[in-house]
């Protein structure tokens, strides 16, 4: 049996060996980091060591790093805090649902056809209302992979004294983390499993001292920002994964993945010319390509590829497995193509034969389904 081809890294990256080792080691740390006795102090050392290492990867103070259960929770804490402070919350229309659904009344900022936040529209929206604001813009989009102009957004925020919130969940191993952290964001979000760490840990990073307050209080852990006994194995694995991902990226890993991605795109142009490469000319994550096949529903493509042993996703896999029209692609103005797109996201450990294997399956599927192409029924 051939090994399934996993091309859904933006849903979750395969575990990095460094992270696996750190998780296993931390499983044997018996104490609770909040206990004052020796075993508790030993656990606390593991926790604080992880905090220092995550902080070092971002070039921020260790005291700016707060561990959470993942990016969803970190987004929720920040946005709920902004709302509690009476801030308007503006968000790019392509943010992850964990941002867009975090609080009611979010004001959407449109994106261009290339999937980049419309800076002029942001400037107008910020000027239209004098209330203090928080602006949520992701480092890079999880579906189309488009990288966002954080420095430009930060400059607009600075002009009006708005806070910038950056969901950087898709950045590790793909974009330089320190450059992202240097943009001046008041809050920054990471997720362990997107970096090749275990599921169940993430961080809300508060480099400027902004304090959004807690959603979950409990025992006052994480200096009161997030109650609950810290999941040490997941956190230790998170720190190890982040370090490994950044070293791998800087050492040429991301460039190699970008070459494989370009080979896929070239093959698609040659063998499936009716396919549309979404945001083809926009700056994108090195591992991500979103492909639309006109008049063939995304779910049909995902299932056909799955039967051929290729794992990709349609829209955001985080929406509990539901395959609905993507709000990201709709916001980019793709129209009916939005329900005909799949996301191919290469994992850090993709083999050299990935383009050939993917292209064989994709071209075969496109040929077979072409005869069945219909106008998709509006959702
Ligand atoms: N933000 C982005 C941009 C994401 O891609 C995801 C996961 N798809 C999340 C947030 C949610 O992350 P987590 O699974 O850690 O809650």
Q: Tags for this entry?
A:
single chain; 379 residues; alpha/beta; Aspartate Aminotransferase, domain 1; Aspartate Aminotransferase, domain 2; 2 domains; 7-stranded mixed β-sheet; 3-stranded antiparallel β-sheet; 12 helices; globular; binds 4'-deoxy-4'-aminopyridoxal-5'-phosphate
Reported CATH architecture of the largest domain:
3-Layer(aba) Sandwich
Ligands, ions, cofactors:
4'-deoxy-4'-aminopyridoxal-5'-phosphate
What is the count of helical runs? 12
Low-pLDDT parts are 316-322
The gross shape turns out to be globular
Structural category is alpha/beta
Strand composition percent: 5-15%
* Main beta sheet: 7 strands, mixed
Describe the structure.
The chain is α/β, with parallel strands linked by helices. It folds into two domains: 126 residues, Aspartate Aminotransferase, domain 1 (Alpha-Beta Complex); 233 residues, Aspartate Aminotransferase, domain 2 (3-Layer(aba) Sandwich). 38% of the residues lie in helices and 12% in strands. The chain contains twelve helices and twelve strands. Strands 2-8-7-6-5-3-4 form a seven-stranded mixed beta sheet, with helices on both faces. A three-stranded antiparallel beta sheet has the order 9-10-12. Helix 1 runs antiparallel to helix 8. The longest helix has 21 residues. About 2% of the residues have low confidence. Bound molecules: 4'-deoxy-4'-aminopyridoxal-5'-phosphate. 4'-deoxy-4'-aminopyridoxal-5'-phosphate binds next to helix 3.
């Amino acid at each position: 049996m051939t090994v399934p081809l996993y091309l859904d890294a933006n849903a979750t990256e395969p575990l990095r060996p460094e992270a696996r080792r750190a998780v296993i080691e931390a499983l044997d740390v018996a104490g609770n980091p909040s206990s004052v006795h020796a075993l508790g102090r030993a656990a606390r050392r593991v926790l604080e060591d992880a905090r220092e290492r995550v902080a070092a990867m971002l070039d921020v103070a260790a005291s700016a790093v707060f561990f959470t259960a993942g990016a969803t929770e970190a987004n929720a804490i920040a946005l709920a805090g902004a709302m509690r402070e009476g801030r308007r919350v503006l968000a790019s229309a392509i943010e992850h649902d964990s941002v867009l659904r975090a609080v009611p009344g979010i004001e959407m900022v449109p994106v261009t056809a290339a999937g980049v936040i419309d800076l002029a529209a942001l400037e107008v929206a910020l000027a239209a209302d004098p209330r203090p604001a928080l602006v949520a813009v992701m480092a890079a989009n999880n579906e189309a992979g488009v990288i966002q102009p954080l420095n430009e957004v930060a400059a607009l925020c600075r002009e009006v004294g708005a806070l910038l919130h950056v969901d950087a969940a898709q950045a590790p191993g793909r974009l330089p983390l320190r450059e992202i952290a240097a943009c001046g964001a008041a809050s920054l979000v990471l997720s362990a499993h997107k970096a090749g760490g275990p599921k169940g840990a993430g961080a809300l990073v508060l480099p400027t001292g902004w304090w959004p307050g807690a959603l979950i209080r409990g025992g006052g852990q994480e200096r009161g920002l997030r109650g609950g006994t810290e999941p040490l194995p997941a956190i230790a694995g998170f720190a190890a994964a982040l370090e490994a991902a950044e070293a791998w990226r800087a050492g040429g890993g991301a460039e190699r993945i970008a070459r494989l991605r370009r080979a896929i795109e070239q093959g698609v142009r040659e063998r499936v010319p009716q396919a549309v490469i979404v945001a083809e000319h926009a700056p994108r994550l090195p591992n991500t390509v979103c492909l639309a096949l006109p008049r063939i529903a995304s779910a049909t493509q995902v299932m056909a590829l799955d039967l051929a042993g290729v794992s990709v996703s349609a829209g955001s896999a985080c929406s509990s497995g539901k395959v609905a029209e993507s709000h990201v692609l709709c916001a980019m103005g793709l129209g009916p193509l939005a329900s005909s797109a799949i996301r191919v996201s290469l994992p850090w450990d993709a083999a050299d034969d990935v383009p050939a294997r993917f292209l064989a399956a994709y071209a075969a599927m496109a040929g077979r389904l072409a005869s069945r192409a219909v106008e998709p029924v509006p959702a």
